[in-house]
Amino acid sequence: MKNYSAISEFILLGLSIDPSIQVILFVLFLLIYLFTLMGNFLMLLVIRADSHLHIPMYFFLQQLSFLDLCHSSVTVPKMLENLLSESKTIFVESCLAQAFFVFATGGTEACLLAVMAYDRCIAITSPLLYGQVMNNQLCVGMVWSSWGLAFADALINILLAVNLDYCEDQTIPHFSCELSSLFPLSCSDTSTNFTLLLCSSFLHFFGTFLMIVLSYARIVFTILSISSTSGRGKAFSTCSSHLTTVILFYGSGFLSYLLPTSGSPLEMMFSLQYSVITPMLNPLIYSLQNKEVKAAMGRIFRKYFYSLM
Protein backbone atom coordinates (compact mmCIF):
# COMPACT_ATOMS: atom_id res chain seq x y z
CA MET A 1 0.00 0.00 0.00
CA LYS A 2 1.13 3.54 -0.74
CA ASN A 3 0.01 6.79 0.85
CA TYR A 4 -1.30 9.46 -1.51
CA SER A 5 -2.14 13.09 -0.91
CA ALA A 6 -5.33 14.01 -2.77
CA ILE A 7 -5.19 17.00 -5.10
CA SER A 8 -7.85 19.65 -5.69
CA GLU A 9 -6.68 21.04 -9.03
CA PHE A 10 -5.44 19.85 -12.40
CA ILE A 11 -3.10 21.71 -14.74
CA LEU A 12 -4.18 21.94 -18.38
CA LEU A 13 -1.00 22.20 -20.44
CA GLY A 14 -2.93 23.56 -23.41
CA LEU A 15 -1.60 24.09 -26.92
CA SER A 16 1.72 25.84 -26.26
CA ILE A 17 3.99 27.03 -23.45
CA ASP A 18 5.54 29.83 -25.53
CA PRO A 19 3.97 33.17 -24.36
CA SER A 20 4.24 34.80 -27.80
CA ILE A 21 2.53 31.84 -29.49
CA GLN A 22 -0.12 31.80 -26.76
CA VAL A 23 -1.10 35.39 -27.60
CA ILE A 24 -1.44 34.50 -31.29
CA LEU A 25 -3.50 31.42 -30.44
CA PHE A 26 -5.71 33.47 -28.12
CA VAL A 27 -6.56 35.94 -30.90
CA LEU A 28 -7.12 33.12 -33.41
CA PHE A 29 -9.43 31.05 -31.22
CA LEU A 30 -11.25 34.11 -29.92
CA LEU A 31 -12.12 34.99 -33.52
CA ILE A 32 -13.15 31.38 -34.22
CA TYR A 33 -15.37 31.36 -31.12
CA LEU A 34 -16.99 34.69 -32.06
CA PHE A 35 -17.67 33.41 -35.59
CA THR A 36 -19.14 30.23 -34.05
CA LEU A 37 -21.48 32.25 -31.85
CA MET A 38 -22.54 34.60 -34.65
CA GLY A 39 -23.00 31.86 -37.25
CA ASN A 40 -25.07 29.57 -35.06
CA PHE A 41 -27.14 32.39 -33.54
CA LEU A 42 -27.84 33.65 -37.07
CA MET A 43 -28.92 30.15 -38.12
CA LEU A 44 -31.27 29.93 -35.13
CA LEU A 45 -32.72 33.35 -35.94
CA VAL A 46 -33.23 32.63 -39.66
CA ILE A 47 -34.96 29.29 -39.08
CA ARG A 48 -37.21 30.76 -36.42
CA ALA A 49 -38.08 33.90 -38.38
CA ASP A 50 -38.75 32.40 -41.83
CA SER A 51 -41.92 30.31 -42.14
CA HIS A 52 -40.59 28.56 -45.26
CA LEU A 53 -38.06 26.76 -43.02
CA HIS A 54 -40.62 25.43 -40.53
CA ILE A 55 -40.20 21.84 -41.69
CA PRO A 56 -38.52 18.83 -39.99
CA MET A 57 -35.17 19.23 -41.79
CA TYR A 58 -34.68 22.75 -40.44
CA PHE A 59 -36.11 21.89 -37.06
CA PHE A 60 -33.22 19.42 -36.70
CA LEU A 61 -30.77 21.96 -38.11
CA GLN A 62 -31.95 24.41 -35.43
CA GLN A 63 -31.16 21.80 -32.79
CA LEU A 64 -27.73 21.22 -34.35
CA SER A 65 -26.93 24.93 -34.19
CA PHE A 66 -27.93 25.05 -30.53
CA LEU A 67 -25.77 21.99 -29.83
CA ASP A 68 -22.78 23.56 -31.57
CA LEU A 69 -23.18 26.63 -29.37
CA CYS A 70 -23.23 24.44 -26.28
CA HIS A 71 -20.38 22.16 -27.34
CA SER A 72 -17.97 24.96 -28.20
CA SER A 73 -18.92 26.97 -25.09
CA VAL A 74 -17.99 24.03 -22.87
CA THR A 75 -14.33 24.06 -23.91
CA VAL A 76 -13.33 27.27 -25.71
CA PRO A 77 -13.83 29.87 -22.90
CA LYS A 78 -11.61 27.90 -20.51
CA MET A 79 -9.04 27.36 -23.24
CA LEU A 80 -8.96 31.12 -23.94
CA GLU A 81 -8.56 31.83 -20.22
CA ASN A 82 -5.63 29.43 -19.93
CA LEU A 83 -3.89 30.94 -22.96
CA LEU A 84 -3.57 34.21 -21.02
CA SER A 85 -3.04 32.68 -17.59
CA GLU A 86 0.19 31.54 -15.98
CA SER A 87 -1.34 28.99 -13.61
CA LYS A 88 -3.54 27.12 -16.17
CA THR A 89 -5.30 25.31 -13.34
CA ILE A 90 -8.81 23.91 -13.15
CA PHE A 91 -10.55 22.51 -10.07
CA VAL A 92 -11.14 18.76 -10.10
CA GLU A 93 -14.91 19.31 -9.81
CA SER A 94 -14.86 21.80 -12.70
CA CYS A 95 -12.80 19.39 -14.78
CA LEU A 96 -15.29 16.58 -14.17
CA ALA A 97 -18.17 18.90 -15.05
CA GLN A 98 -16.46 19.90 -18.28
CA ALA A 99 -15.78 16.25 -19.14
CA PHE A 100 -19.46 15.47 -18.53
CA PHE A 101 -20.75 18.21 -20.82
CA VAL A 102 -18.18 17.45 -23.54
CA PHE A 103 -19.34 13.82 -23.52
CA ALA A 104 -23.04 14.72 -23.30
CA THR A 105 -23.13 17.37 -26.04
CA GLY A 106 -20.92 15.30 -28.33
CA GLY A 107 -23.14 12.26 -27.79
CA THR A 108 -26.28 14.29 -28.44
CA GLU A 109 -24.82 15.59 -31.69
CA ALA A 110 -24.00 12.04 -32.80
CA CYS A 111 -27.62 10.99 -32.17
CA LEU A 112 -28.97 14.10 -33.86
CA LEU A 113 -26.88 13.50 -36.99
CA ALA A 114 -28.35 9.98 -37.16
CA VAL A 115 -31.85 11.45 -36.82
CA MET A 116 -31.09 13.96 -39.59
CA ALA A 117 -29.86 11.13 -41.83
CA TYR A 118 -33.14 9.28 -41.25
CA ASP A 119 -35.04 12.48 -42.09
CA ARG A 120 -33.15 12.81 -45.41
CA CYS A 121 -33.73 9.12 -46.09
CA ILE A 122 -37.51 9.46 -45.74
CA ALA A 123 -37.53 12.70 -47.78
CA ILE A 124 -35.74 11.05 -50.72
CA THR A 125 -37.04 7.46 -50.61
CA SER A 126 -40.68 8.26 -49.69
CA PRO A 127 -41.34 11.90 -50.63
CA LEU A 128 -45.13 11.47 -50.79
CA LEU A 129 -45.24 10.12 -47.23
CA TYR A 130 -42.66 12.53 -45.82
CA GLY A 131 -45.11 14.90 -44.12
CA GLN A 132 -47.07 12.00 -42.65
CA VAL A 133 -44.06 10.05 -41.37
CA MET A 134 -42.00 12.98 -40.09
CA ASN A 135 -44.77 14.54 -38.06
CA ASN A 136 -44.15 17.03 -35.27
CA GLN A 137 -44.62 14.46 -32.49
CA LEU A 138 -42.00 12.12 -33.96
CA CYS A 139 -39.50 14.93 -34.58
CA VAL A 140 -39.76 16.28 -31.03
CA GLY A 141 -39.59 12.75 -29.62
CA MET A 142 -36.41 11.92 -31.55
CA VAL A 143 -34.73 15.15 -30.41
CA TRP A 144 -35.61 14.55 -26.75
CA SER A 145 -34.46 10.93 -27.08
CA SER A 146 -31.12 12.13 -28.46
CA TRP A 147 -30.60 14.47 -25.50
CA GLY A 148 -31.80 11.90 -22.97
CA LEU A 149 -29.69 9.01 -24.26
CA ALA A 150 -26.50 11.08 -24.47
CA PHE A 151 -26.91 12.68 -21.02
CA ALA A 152 -27.71 9.32 -19.42
CA ASP A 153 -24.64 7.80 -21.05
CA ALA A 154 -22.46 10.70 -19.87
CA LEU A 155 -23.92 10.59 -16.36
CA ILE A 156 -23.17 6.89 -15.89
CA ASN A 157 -19.56 7.41 -16.97
CA ILE A 158 -18.99 10.55 -14.90
CA LEU A 159 -20.48 9.07 -11.71
CA LEU A 160 -17.85 6.33 -11.80
CA ALA A 161 -15.13 8.92 -12.46
CA VAL A 162 -16.26 10.98 -9.45
CA ASN A 163 -15.43 8.06 -7.15
CA LEU A 164 -11.83 7.87 -8.38
CA ASP A 165 -8.95 9.23 -6.28
CA TYR A 166 -6.84 11.74 -8.17
CA CYS A 167 -3.34 12.16 -6.83
CA GLU A 168 0.36 12.62 -7.61
CA ASP A 169 0.58 13.71 -11.26
CA GLN A 170 -1.93 16.53 -11.86
CA THR A 171 -0.92 17.54 -15.39
CA ILE A 172 -3.36 16.99 -18.28
CA PRO A 173 -1.59 17.13 -21.68
CA HIS A 174 -4.63 18.71 -23.31
CA PHE A 175 -6.54 22.00 -23.65
CA SER A 176 -9.74 20.56 -22.10
CA CYS A 177 -10.90 17.87 -19.70
CA GLU A 178 -12.09 14.61 -21.23
CA LEU A 179 -12.69 11.32 -19.47
CA SER A 180 -9.90 9.57 -21.33
CA SER A 181 -7.49 12.28 -20.09
CA LEU A 182 -8.48 11.83 -16.45
CA PHE A 183 -7.96 8.09 -16.05
CA PRO A 184 -4.13 8.17 -16.25
CA LEU A 185 -4.11 10.73 -13.40
CA SER A 186 -5.94 8.47 -10.96
CA CYS A 187 -4.25 6.26 -8.37
CA SER A 188 -7.40 4.10 -8.24
CA ASP A 189 -8.14 1.11 -10.43
CA THR A 190 -9.62 2.56 -13.64
CA SER A 191 -10.15 -0.70 -15.53
CA THR A 192 -13.91 -0.59 -14.93
CA ASN A 193 -14.10 3.08 -15.96
CA PHE A 194 -12.09 2.47 -19.10
CA THR A 195 -14.17 -0.58 -20.07
CA LEU A 196 -17.42 1.32 -19.53
CA LEU A 197 -16.17 4.31 -21.53
CA LEU A 198 -15.03 2.05 -24.36
CA CYS A 199 -18.32 0.14 -24.47
CA SER A 200 -20.55 3.19 -24.22
CA SER A 201 -18.51 5.07 -26.86
CA PHE A 202 -18.63 2.07 -29.16
CA LEU A 203 -22.39 1.56 -28.76
CA HIS A 204 -23.22 5.27 -28.87
CA PHE A 205 -20.96 6.65 -31.57
CA PHE A 206 -20.53 3.55 -33.74
CA GLY A 207 -24.23 2.71 -33.31
CA THR A 208 -25.31 6.11 -34.60
CA PHE A 209 -22.69 5.94 -37.35
CA LEU A 210 -24.13 2.59 -38.48
CA MET A 211 -27.61 4.15 -38.62
CA ILE A 212 -26.24 6.96 -40.79
CA VAL A 213 -24.51 4.49 -43.13
CA LEU A 214 -27.72 2.45 -43.52
CA SER A 215 -29.77 5.60 -44.20
CA TYR A 216 -27.32 6.77 -46.86
CA ALA A 217 -27.21 3.32 -48.41
CA ARG A 218 -30.97 3.62 -49.04
CA ILE A 219 -30.51 7.19 -50.26
CA VAL A 220 -27.79 6.20 -52.77
CA PHE A 221 -29.87 3.25 -54.01
CA THR A 222 -32.87 5.55 -54.54
CA ILE A 223 -30.82 8.27 -56.26
CA LEU A 224 -29.25 5.74 -58.66
CA SER A 225 -32.73 4.57 -59.65
CA ILE A 226 -33.70 8.08 -60.78
CA SER A 227 -33.46 8.26 -64.58
CA SER A 228 -32.79 11.98 -65.12
CA THR A 229 -29.44 13.55 -64.28
CA SER A 230 -31.09 16.71 -62.99
CA GLY A 231 -33.30 14.63 -60.70
CA ARG A 232 -30.27 12.88 -59.27
CA GLY A 233 -28.48 16.16 -58.69
CA LYS A 234 -31.50 17.70 -56.97
CA ALA A 235 -31.95 14.67 -54.71
CA PHE A 236 -28.28 14.60 -53.75
CA SER A 237 -28.17 18.36 -53.08
CA THR A 238 -30.76 17.96 -50.31
CA CYS A 239 -28.34 15.86 -48.24
CA SER A 240 -24.90 17.16 -49.32
CA SER A 241 -24.69 19.62 -46.39
CA HIS A 242 -25.56 16.92 -43.87
CA LEU A 243 -23.08 14.50 -45.41
CA THR A 244 -20.30 17.10 -45.14
CA THR A 245 -21.14 17.68 -41.47
CA VAL A 246 -21.13 13.93 -40.78
CA ILE A 247 -17.68 13.53 -42.35
CA LEU A 248 -16.25 16.41 -40.29
CA PHE A 249 -17.83 15.28 -37.02
CA TYR A 250 -17.21 11.55 -37.16
CA GLY A 251 -13.86 11.77 -38.93
CA SER A 252 -12.26 14.01 -36.31
CA GLY A 253 -14.31 12.65 -33.40
CA PHE A 254 -13.45 9.00 -33.98
CA LEU A 255 -9.77 9.71 -34.52
CA SER A 256 -9.68 11.91 -31.42
CA TYR A 257 -11.10 9.17 -29.22
CA LEU A 258 -9.19 6.31 -30.83
CA LEU A 259 -5.78 7.95 -30.45
CA PRO A 260 -4.08 7.40 -27.08
CA THR A 261 -4.13 10.37 -24.69
CA SER A 262 -0.58 11.57 -25.09
CA GLY A 263 -0.90 15.27 -25.91
CA SER A 264 0.68 14.71 -29.33
CA PRO A 265 0.19 17.39 -32.03
CA LEU A 266 -1.90 14.95 -34.10
CA GLU A 267 -4.24 14.26 -31.18
CA MET A 268 -4.54 17.99 -30.44
CA MET A 269 -5.36 18.70 -34.08
CA PHE A 270 -8.21 16.19 -34.20
CA SER A 271 -9.56 17.41 -30.85
CA LEU A 272 -9.53 21.02 -32.07
CA GLN A 273 -11.27 20.00 -35.28
CA TYR A 274 -13.92 18.11 -33.33
CA SER A 275 -14.65 20.61 -30.56
CA VAL A 276 -13.69 24.03 -31.96
CA ILE A 277 -13.53 24.11 -35.77
CA THR A 278 -16.56 21.97 -36.69
CA PRO A 279 -19.08 24.06 -34.65
CA MET A 280 -17.87 27.12 -36.58
CA LEU A 281 -18.04 25.41 -39.99
CA ASN A 282 -21.53 23.89 -39.68
CA PRO A 283 -23.45 27.18 -40.17
CA LEU A 284 -21.23 28.01 -43.15
CA ILE A 285 -21.82 24.57 -44.67
CA TYR A 286 -25.59 24.81 -44.34
CA SER A 287 -25.80 28.44 -45.48
CA LEU A 288 -23.44 28.16 -48.46
CA GLN A 289 -24.64 24.78 -49.76
CA ASN A 290 -28.37 25.22 -49.06
CA LYS A 291 -30.43 27.34 -51.46
CA GLU A 292 -33.42 27.53 -49.10
CA VAL A 293 -31.31 28.91 -46.23
CA LYS A 294 -29.67 31.47 -48.53
CA ALA A 295 -33.09 32.50 -49.86
CA ALA A 296 -34.44 32.83 -46.31
CA MET A 297 -31.48 35.00 -45.31
CA GLY A 298 -32.11 37.21 -48.34
CA ARG A 299 -35.79 37.63 -47.44
CA ILE A 300 -34.97 38.50 -43.83
CA PHE A 301 -32.26 41.02 -44.74
CA ARG A 302 -34.48 42.68 -47.39
CA LYS A 303 -37.32 42.93 -44.91
CA TYR A 304 -34.97 44.45 -42.33
CA PHE A 305 -33.53 47.03 -44.73
CA TYR A 306 -36.99 47.98 -46.03
CA SER A 307 -38.12 48.56 -42.46
CA LEU A 308 -35.24 51.01 -41.97
CA MET A 309 -36.09 53.04 -45.06
From TrEMBL:
Subcellular location as annotated: Cell membrane
InterPro entries assigned to the protein according to its UniProt record, in alphabetical order: GPCR_Rhodpsn, GPCR_Rhodpsn_7TM, Olfact_rcpt
Similarity annotation: Belongs to the G-protein coupled receptor 1 family.
CDD domains registered for this protein in UniProt: 7tmA_OR8S1-like
The protein's name: Olfactory receptor
Keywords, sorted A to Z: Cell membrane, G-protein coupled receptor, Membrane, Olfaction, Receptor, Sensory transduction, Transducer, Transmembrane, Transmembrane helix
TM segment ranges: 20-46, 96-118, 138-160, 202-224, 236-259, 271-289
Function statement: Putative odorant or sperm cell receptor.
Main location: membrane
Annotated signal sequence range: none
Alphabetized GO MF terms: G protein-coupled receptor activity; olfactory receptor activity
The organism's place on the tree of life at top rank: Eukaryota
Topological category with respect to the lipid bilayer: Multi-pass membrane protein
Lineage: Eukaryota, Metazoa, Chordata, Craniata, Vertebrata
PROSITE patterns in the cross-refs: G_PROTEIN_RECEP_F1_1, G_PROTEIN_RECEP_F1_2
Residue ranges of domain G-protein coupled receptors family 1 profile in the record: 39-286
Keyword Transmembrane: yes
PANTHER family listed in its UniProt record: OLFACTORY RECEPTOR
GO CC aspect terms: plasma membrane
